[in-house]
Amino acid sequence: MRRSREEAAETRRRIVETAATQFRAHGVAGIGIADLMAEADLTHGGFYRHFESKGRLVAEACRHALSQTTEDIATAADKAPDGRGLETALRRYLHPLHRDTPEKGCALAAIGGEVARSDTDARAAMTEGFQSLVDTVRRQLPDLSPAEAEERALAIVAGMIGSLTVARLVPDKDLANRILRASRTHLLALADRD
To answer: Does the reported pTM lie above 0.90?
Structure first.
């Protein structure tokens, strides 16, 4: 009995990880359950043993993807030299590699617009992930009052997501790179304004 529970948990984890990648790569509407399960090397029929709906899977996949993004950004910022955590986080997030690999990156930038029109579970998961990124950025602003650090972190993270989204949107790589560079510079300056 214990073995079957462990196997079920492992299968569920594999489905969530696969979905997190595939949704970011193709969009939530861009991949169906059958194709998603095939990507996870599982049968379509097994899906409903693990999830009651695609919406539930979307929520879990968003949580998983955003926890990876937040952990990546937080780790990079924590390893940065003193006073350079925000700059490091911005360079990590607003980077051409992140722009060019949405399947491995931030779900907010990859599928946020689509999830904004979906059920409340997925929107709640995205909101939690957004708040985690805000908290990560806020911790990089220790010289500000808590309220001011929160306000600036909200603006910085929203700017990060929007900038990455637009950099992915434009087909001109030179313009996309300029968007990333300009955004890093101006979002970093937001932290230093009095």
So the answer is: yes
